[in-house]
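#structure-requests
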Amino acid sequence: MRLLEYKKGPTGRDMFLIERPNGEQQWVLSYVLGGSFNEEKAAVKYRYEQKMAAANSSTGSGAFGTTHENLSGPGSSNQTMLLRSRADAREELKCICLQQHAQSTEDLMTCSLCNRKSHVRCVRAEGLSQTDMKEWQCPQCRILHMDPFNSGLELLMYVTTPRNMLAPSSQDGNLSMRFNIDPNQLKDWQAKKISLSVRCVGLGPRSMNVPKGPLWPKDVTASVNSYKDVFKILPPKYGHVRREVAGKEISDLIKPNSNTVTIQYKTEQPPMNAHVQPPRFMFGVVASEPKSKADILSIIRRPGIEECKLRDIDLVKRAIETFEALQTGDDIVIETRGDFEIINTRCPLSLCEMDTPVRGIECEHIQCYDADSYVDVNIRTRNVEKRWICPVCSKIVRPEDLIVDEFVLDAINSAKSVVGLDEYGGFLKRLKLDIQRGEWEVMPDEEAEGEGSDDEDDEQVSKRPRHTNDHNDSSEIVLD
């Protein structure tokens, strides 16, 4: 028996379209299937919610903003509102516990990407600051959007260790993920070269510094359908740190209709403190589409010149205000070079002239870097956790967070026509933004800003009077 589709019944109850071995299809309620199909039910429902989210966002109704008008049955208006609020709570909840705590008073966390809620205890998000809570991403989004070079299209199935979210983290065990793929869908994916892979992320408290990127247990052995030991994740060598891989591809082993992925894992031994548990892991089967360098560059946003101009002036003003606020009095005086309004046309990554100056939307500096060089560096970085780090402020800046500073680009092109190129055909200068006039000016080269060349300094030293032994002070040292 296979689960094909999901919908809400007339009374707001979950209903699933099943296909029996004889080919007959029928809509049934959730309790008819029993507990043996919990994972399949969660996967079918999750795919339905993803489709509804895409449809609602395209029509402007907001992510997952579905309202079930058919919930109003016989009874008072208060009872109707209560039924609707419960239905809305179920719609907003997308916890990895498969809604085991939907009716409890568990604290909830909201994902910054999909705006769905998860239980704090299930995702082990205790002790987060206000900033971290705003930027928090649910495990489903983390595993789906892990690698921009392999953009996740659909999360087919996922499973956690252990399945009971309230139980302690287990050190080893066996997990299985069963999912169905329509034959026509599989053919379409194969024609578009969409790959299927197994990914894994870690769930742990703030004190354990669990990375947002991929994290695998110490030892993993996976089997797909009837193929044993399809891939293995081995422990790191003694004295070394293992480089976590983004995913293990299983496209060639997937067949139409029913598929099963079995995972055998072992985690690190827990410490002596019984209150600290090893991280919990979440495995998932993801359909992803490979992205080229041109695809990555095409999603970078390009605001207008006026918008970039206002943003640059605001960045400089805020930087100056922050610096002046640190000058609390005569006791503490910070002496530093005021270069908040100065940018270098040399890219900090390639050390060449910037062709397309970009920076992150959340970056608070005016200095830019070249888009092409930034993508090249991340392509060559094999460690996924070390990718997409701003070379200026070290913030996480993914491709969708990049913006082209058209104001800086226009200033570079204008300065080239006035100043001209150097002897090597480049334009490696420094530009200073006048926040009062809103204009850029070309600064002199750094070499020309000194007090003089080395030869001039030597000449000045030679003109100084020399100390000799003619003085009566015998303690004087003569340096020739």
